[in-house]
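Troubleshooting: if your tokenizer reports a length mismatch, compare your output against this known-good record of 439 residues.
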Amino acid sequence: MERWRAEAEGPGRIEKSRANVRILVLSTTTGYQLRSFGDAAAALGVELTFATDRCHTLDDPWQDAAVAVRFDDLNASVDAVVAAARERPLDGVVAVGDRPVVVAARVARALGLRGNPPDAAAASANKLLARQRFADAGLIAPWYCVVPPGADAREVAGRVRYPAVVKPLVLSGSRGVIRVNSPDELTRALSRVRALLARPEILAMRLETDGTVLVEGYMDGREYAVEGLLTGGTFRALAIFDKPDPLDGPFFEETVYVTPALLRPSQRDEITGEVARAVRELGLLEGPVHVECRLVPGGVFVIEVAARPIGGLCSRVLRFGPSGEMSLEELLLRHACGRDVACVEREQLAAAVMMIPIPRRGIFKRVTGLDEAREVPFVEDVRVTAKADQLMEPLPEAGSYLGFIFARAPRPQDAEAAVRAAHARLTVAIEPAIQVSPA
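Known-good structure output:
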């Protein structure tokens, strides 16, 4: 599709010939990053077309001219995007979030654009498929077993080894993930995860799972996240995040990300090498990847590989270029446009983000102390994303964040200390939720 030609003229606008460069962004309607993509596109002179999971019978309810798709109906979604592309041809595809990755891969294949093989995208979005591929390839992996919806929890609990981890095949952000240390704990955890998967809001997502749950061995070790980019199957690590808080259960709430991670060069090479191997074994070829892994005795345990960028507002922790002038979204749009971004490096400053913990279940009212938190040295911003009167739940049921704290500093330790100090100045008001008894 020789519709455009990009001229490399520094970090400014992308020049086109014949037509505008147009990139498709597939996302849920609640994607935090859409505004950041819009800002980056405006700076680059790139036109965006959105495709979001929404009701197709409503006439553009969000006023964004997006293509209405349903992530559970792949064929119809691909057909809808291809039909829209006849009127507004596309030059690249970016998926934001776990659910859009398979549609994005199918669209890229249908339109002859760079993208991931659909089966690789599907494996990245399913914890069981990914675990099977990693184990078959000889990567460090725990034992695992599949628990169908009708399986007897006590029978399963009696035949697995402990400690173990119970997790749904889908869902992100450690939602539904529980460490168990005994048969009784596993029985209770299975019941809790099954109840979560049976919630109306989860069922409404029409996930490609029938309630099947994965149980696998718990592997102890320091946890890290890797943000990477694939070009023609070649993996490049953009950043390695340390997760300084212990993540040893029973739930796995990710609170603080800090980059660069304080690793020895040999450890850094070991992590990036094993992550690249895991990405290759999944068969992913193009675009962003977000990887969770642990340093365990014997090497690197790759927990999961997602074929999308870091989620939520967390992407704001990453800046690129000598003075941090380029956002992650701009980098991804440049890559989707075919620009060479191999020489673009993360800024020199260290950075940290805290996903503000949800202290307890209840109705969110307010956060006070925001001005005081923003005055902490090195803190760049404190953003509350929860809405007043919204029901908030901690993990393992949590489906959203309370907010985010961002900091940049000369050293990773300073950035981490800044977000913690800012958090200490906040007071979160959450009132007990009203319990409604069945009639």
